[in-house]
Amino acid sequence: MKKIALMRHVTFYLVLIILNVCTGNIFAQEKEKPWYESISVNGFLSTSYSYNFNKPALNQNQYHVFDNDNNSFKLDVAELLLQKPVSKISDAGFKLDFIAGSSIPRVIASSGLFRDKSGKANDFDVPQAFVSYIAPVGNGLRFDIGKFYTHVGYEQIEGYEGFNNNAGHSFLFGFSEPTTHTGLHIIYPFSDKISGMVMVVNGWDNAVDNNKSKSVGAQLSYSPTEDFQIYANFIGGPEKDNNNTDNRFVYNLSINNKLTQDITCALTFDYGLEQGMLADNSNAKWFGGALYFNFALFEKFNVALRGEVFNDKNGSRTGLNQTLSEITLTPQYKFTPNFILRADVRLDNSNQFIFDKEGLIKKNQLTVLINALYWF
User: Fold this and answer.
1) Whole domain around residue 361: which residue ranges?
2) Are 165 and 304 spatial neighbours (Cβ–Cβ below 8 Å)?
3) Residues 322-356: pLDDT tens digits?
4) What is the total count of domains within the chain?
5) Three-state SS at 22
6) Is 45 among the domain residues?
7) Is the dihedral of CA 12, 18, 23, 28 positive or negative?
């Protein structure tokens, strides 16, 4: 009997110990993580070398966006990204993006923040800095307040969150579309296939507004399958200094389609208009389109191809009434999951004599751009 009683006591205490361990683990799992563990820290680095076969006297690749210095090695951008992502209802978070370098920051720096009164930008910028909250409304109404990248167009600015298949950027990206906005950005997913966005912002690339009116943007996206997406984008509002009535509008349609397991393609179209831009106070217009293909030839090797046409009908975007076109071929090799080497071979054309060739003027220029990317 004593042995039975002893066994009962031992069993009882073993059960207590097991319950204590189990409940302790449950409580430990339910305990919230320290705030700093919910913040992710990521980085991105892009370096390049560009060569122009025209050997321009001013040593510039004309009408190129970031790769505009000829025969020069460059640190395009070094990025440090801090963020607390939001994904579900009642989540709050932020994104803070620091970049430095001799290419990207000099182009995208916003007026009123990292661009001085003369319009000059230096080698540092904060392209994104906003707080986010998903309100408990329907499927979740997301608010972003601060500074963020534009929704207009197909191509993106290289960084940890993504990069294009071509190393250089299109004329549409450089002359038809904005890069960043500062203001309020609202997103609502109507379903798993349809999402809408509206925003009210200071304007194009303005951290501080240059007039008393705001610009309004919108996006409607439709993804019937994982391999096919359509984005209809818009932005409009006054963009001239101290002018609240003359509006600038840009309409963009972008389509992505995965044709096969190894081939993807995309189309993008822009139409822009700005009121009162011409000498007779009439409207300036521009439009264009680009077609993209990406071929995954081997596990680590792919080739991208881009062709585009951009019509600056009144010269309001490039400074000359002209039609620009280009074709870019980009082989790319992925050495590791986080390191890529790629090269653009690009031929630019214009219907005007505008490209510098050793002090003479031609209608085309041929360039090569070698680009290395690393991220963590």
Assistant:
1) 41-375
2) yes
3) 999 999 999 999 999 999 999 999 999 999 999 99
4) 1
5) helix
6) yes
7) positive
